[in-house]
């Protein structure tokens, strides 16, 4: 592997979550490449925002090089097509006294970005190995997103930046109850359902 390839493989990667409905409902309606680029880029800009508002203005879109190279006429046509096909929503917003065209995702997609366990790991611990990736996938199935985020925060606050420590936090919360501290002594260590029993079992996904 060359130095260039190694550097590329070790660079941080951000993940943008897209719901199933984006592929099952939005993508089939897209008619051409320009419209696809616009819808994907609007999704990217919205879903990477840490907080509201969950929309982007036409001015924001025009300021990005990839979309600006399309030309204003093509960009407008692509946006109009996406709105007509129901893959984007159009509105007019007042920003500092100026009315601007704004675009947001459809109802099925217009949710705040979900907690991404892989991004949390890369940002707080480091590069993900194949073995760690498998453990992260399993944890994502077992525990609620808010538990995962809070476990990372707790580990960072204590300067215990390791997946093993974070996994132990999650295991403890699942067995004892996250807030009560109550220990469920009837849960056996090798019980495959130990994380979905007890007072907080309804919070843990299979």
CATH topology of the largest domain: Arc Repressor Mutant, subunit A
Count structural domains.
Answer: 2
One letter per element, helices H and strands E, the order comes to HHHEHHHEEHHHH
Number of helices: 10
The main pleated sheet reads as: 3 strands, antiparallel
Report the span from N to C terminus.
39 Å
Biggest β-sheet: strands ordered side by side in the sheet = 1-3-2
Q: Which runs of at least 5 residues are low in confidence (pLDDT < 50)? A: 1-11, 107-113, 180-192, 194-206
Give the CATH class of the largest domain: Mainly Alpha
**Residues in β-strands, percent:** 5-15%
Rg estimate, integer Å: 22 Å
The CATH architecture assignment of the largest domain turns out to be: Orthogonal Bundle
- What general outline do the C-alpha atoms trace? elongated
Helix content: 40-55%
| Overall pLDDT score | 76
**Class by SSE composition:** mainly alpha
Number of strands: 3
Task: Describe this structure as you would to a colleague.
It is a single chain. With 206 residues, the chain is mainly α. The chain has two domains: 20-105, Arc Repressor Mutant, subunit A (Orthogonal Bundle); 117-203, Arc Repressor Mutant, subunit A. The chain is 49% helix and 9% strand. It is built from ten helices and three strands, in the order αααβαααββαααα. α3 (33-47) packs across α6 (72-84), α7 (117-124) packs parallel to α9 and α9 (145-157) packs across α10 (163-176). Mean pLDDT is 76; it is low at 1-11, 107-113, 180-192 and 194-206.
């Amino acid at each position: 592997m060359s130095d260039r390839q190694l550097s590329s493989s070790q660079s941080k990667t951000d993940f943008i979550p897209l719901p199933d409905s984006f592929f099952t409902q939005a993508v089939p309606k897209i008619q051409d490449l320009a419209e696809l680029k616009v819808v994907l880029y609007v999704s990217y800009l919205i879903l990477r925002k840490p907080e509201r508002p969950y929309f982007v203005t036409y001015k924001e879109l025009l300021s990005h090089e990839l979309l600006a190279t399309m030309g204003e006429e093509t960009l407008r046509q692509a946006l109009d097509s996406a709105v007509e096909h129901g893959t984007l929503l159009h509105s007019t917003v007042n920003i500092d006294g100026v009315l601007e065209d704004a675009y947001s995702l459809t109802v099925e997609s217009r949710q705040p970005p979900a907690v991404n366990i892989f991004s949390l790991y890369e940002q707080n611990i480091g590069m993900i190995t194949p073995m760690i990736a498998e453990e992260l996938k399993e944890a994502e199935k077992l525990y609620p997103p808010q538990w995962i985020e809070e476990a990372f925060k707790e580990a960072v606050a204590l300067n215990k930046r390791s997946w093993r420590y974070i996994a132990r936090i999650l295991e403890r919360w699942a067995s004892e109850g996250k807030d009560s501290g109550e220990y469920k002594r009837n849960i056996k260590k090798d019980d495959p359902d130990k994380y979905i029993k007890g007072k907080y079992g309804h919070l843990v996904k299979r």
